[in-house]
């Protein structure tokens, strides 16, 4: 990636951020609170990062899937899509009337229900449950630029690491 003349990067920076760990937390909320505290103290937070370690995929089962549940979920998502297209039609053609919004929502609900029931039928016996999947980390570290690490430690009230070769200070909440 090329760096423009003014030294500012453009686009996302990919990879582990360079810098030093200021504090570690067992949950994301703690790391976020630390960065909020740095921002409130006018710390240059653009050079800070929250790094999650030991990532795990967690899938929480929300219930048993059935034809009724599949139909209801499909109808709801289809109705939203139909409502969107109905509103879009009203914006493009105001003379079409408000009735088209309701009709579009009903047609969307019908197609959504049909599509979801067909999909559930095809996947039946392989996945008879509904779930929510997420990626979580076991720990979170607040990392800042090496030039600003002492200022960040002072703001957060964290002692510098000992010279015995430790990784850095940890705050576990």
Structural summary, described in words:
With 173 residues, the protein is of the alpha+beta class. It has 2 domains: 18-55 and 137-173, no CATH class; 66-133, no CATH class. 42% of the residues lie in helices and 20% in strands. The protein is built from 4 helices and 5 strands. The strands form 2 sheets. It has a 3-stranded antiparallel β-sheet with strand order 1-5-2, with helices on one face. A two-stranded antiparallel ribbon has the order 3-4. α2 (67-92) packs antiparallel against α3 (99-123). It is elongated and about 65 Å long. 19% of the residues are buried. Mean pLDDT is 84; it is low at 1-5.
What's this, in brief?
This protein has two domains: 18-55 and 137-173, no CATH class; 66-133, no CATH class.
How are the SSEs placed, and which strands pair?
Elements: E1 20-25, H1 28-40, E2 49-53, E3 56-64, H2 67-92, H3 99-123, E4 129-136, E5 139-144, H4 149-156
Antiparallel strand pairs: 1-5, 2-5, 3-4
Helix pairs in contact: 2-3
Keywords:
membrane, about 170 residues, disordered N terminus, alpha+beta, 5 strands, 3-stranded antiparallel sheet, about 40% helix, single chain, two-stranded antiparallel ribbon, 4 helices, GSP17M-like_dom, transmembrane, 2 domains, General stress protein 17M-like domain-containing protein, transmembrane helix
